[in-house]
Amino acid sequence: GKGGSLLFDDLPPASSSDTASSATEQVSSAGSHGKGEKRKSLEEEEKNGREELVEKKVCKGSVSILRLKGYVAERKGEREDMQDAHVILNDITEECQPLPSQITRVSYFAVFDGHGGVRASKFAARNLHQNLIKKFPKGEVASVEKTVKRCLLDTFKHTDEEFLKQASSQKPAWKDGSTATCVLAVDNTLYIANLGDSR
């Protein structure tokens, strides 16, 4: 109603010719100063951007690493047995040595949603992080992000191949399967990988 203030009461009406003319005046007055000022302001922005980048690089070393602590809860549901598995490794930094110099902490958390039996989810819970540690970048690397992503992909592929080899060698062959969601914390960056319909 008219008694209360509306959200846009302080704005001029859209059809106001005064607004259009004042906007035109602002544009023409800015244009009269020439291109030199625009270039100057762009140069200042670029300079400020470079300073910010330098500051970020300097500050990065002093940024504290967030402390992570994993917890889990599980519920069997309607099935006769629990087919899911999980792994919580709050700190696998020592196991991943020698690390690239810019990495100071590595943590691993994973949930495996088994189906058709417990063997695939249990196998993944026992082996995925072991394979990850073996494949984790050792020493200096050009790009930590690219290397860690490649490591995760290779780890999932290798673990899947290992399980399929074992499952197909059984008589009768195992039909167990599992989805996976894995969180790898490298310093303060989380790399999240999933397989199947787990997210």
UniProtKB/TrEMBL annotation:
Biased composition (Low complexity): 9-24
Keyword Metal-binding: yes
Region (Disordered): 1-51
Source superkingdom: Eukaryota
Pfam families noted in UniProt: PP2C
Transmembrane feature ranges: none
Annotated ranges, domain PPM-type phosphatase: 69-199
Gene Ontology MF annotations: metal ion binding; protein serine/threonine phosphatase activity
Compositional bias (Basic and acidic residues): 39-51
Alphabetized UniProt keyword annotations: Hydrolase, Metal-binding, Protein phosphatase
PANTHER family per record: PROTEIN PHOSPHATASE
Descriptive protein name: ILKAP phosphatase
Organism for this UniProt entry: Atlantisia rogersi (Inaccessible Island rail)
The encoding gene: Ilkap
